[in-house]
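Posting for a labmate who doesn't have an account.
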Amino acid sequence: MVGTRPRVCLTPALQSCHLYIFCLITENIEQNLIKNGVEKIWDAMKVYDGVAILLFNITRNVFVFVRQFRPAIYINMVQTEVKDGIETVDTDKYPGTLGLTMELCAGIIDKDKSVPEIAKSEIMEECGYEVPIENIKKITTCRSGVGTSGGLLHLYYAEITDTMKVASGGGVASEGEMIDVVEVTVEEGRKLMFDESVNRVHVFIFALYWFFDQIWTKQP
């Protein structure tokens, strides 16, 4: 199912235009339930499960993250105004950089493949590394979007090397992806956990905590 609610143009090269927000939603659900004797209505969505991978380049001891524009982040950081019946944003006042996020390499599970195989494909598409399946290690699986979707998120860790870099990455252009590959030192990664000036999500912070608890402590 595809949503078609008009909003403002939300691309890094922001111009005066409008955006239709599209979601990979398999089913919208309106739940009628009784909780502690109180009747409630709750909107929820069935969505594809996801996979995220913390990448660490052991050749140079740097994390490999992705940075991309997220319309939902942007629209929650700006003030809109209605012009001629259309809700718009003054992009001179609110630049597109407000919607940039620092993230783990990630994707949705929408193919008939194992989760590690999908993780391998996402690493190649987004970051340009050809990583052997055996390098992709599971950390844990948890729920995400608990207020609206509740899908599963599979979290993995992979150690990569410079020799595995075979492409530039950046996502699949035909799917409209615009992704920057960002390398971050270990100390910069430690600071990112608490840097509130950078848009990041809880799984990003958790993955870094896990790394410093389980991986970096073993370094000489």
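Reply:
Got it, the structure tokens are right above this. The chain has four helices and 13 strands.
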